[in-house]
Amino acid sequence: MKRTKILGIAAHHVTSTVLALLFLLPLLWTLYGSLFGQGASPEGGFGFANYQSVVEYGSGLGTYLLNTTAVALMTVAGVLVVSAFGGYAFARLPFRGRNVLFILTLAILMVPYATILIPLYVLLGWLDLQDSLVGLALVMVMLQLPFSLFMMRNSFEALPKELDEAALMDGCSVAGAFFRVLLRGTVPGLVTVGLYAFLSSWNEFIAPLIFLTSGDLFTLPVALVSLRTGALGSVDYGALQAGVIVSALPCLLLFLFLQRYYVRGFTSGALKG
Fold this sequence. Notes:
MetI-like fold, 2 domains, globular
């Protein structure tokens, strides 16, 4: 039995190591290609020429990073505010048609979002928000809300209703119980929703491509697609791989920093059906 247990543990570690290497291999290969591949150095071999090409391309890497960060942060802020209040309302406040409205909200997930981009483009034109980072952020918030409301509704439902009652008996108002008690109990769900919204907004390509026309407003994914085309339509793989590393690094660091909250958000009632 002891030998079987040791073999089981060894097999678990070997399998985990192999799977980790398989997941990391594309990123490591991309890093290698950006440092040693096409255009990495004028003399060949190791060099940072590809990263220099990314930094100096178009309006500059700083501009594209700033645009992408601004859209991502506005998206996260909007999603957190709306999904927190909406999730609380769906989970705690009884009102007529609550379940029907929630089902209709989830039904949006079954609609391919690319099919509603043109109506949204027209709507933003009426609001004078075309070719605007704020307009793009509003679109990203709308696209993230069905999933975010689902997560936050289940996060609030996972909290015992005795918390509400105890807070109200201690003199809290409904708003006070929400902000001082319940909201603190849903921090893992909020982090999960915020992280998912950030990653989705940061890596989004189709929406910025449609809603942004000014080159100095491009987000990083759109800029990388423009960067990859070299002379006579050839693909500059070295510069593209350097851009992919620059784009992936903030997402990777953010996920590593928040992963314990992210995992807890999925396991502490966020997927309660």
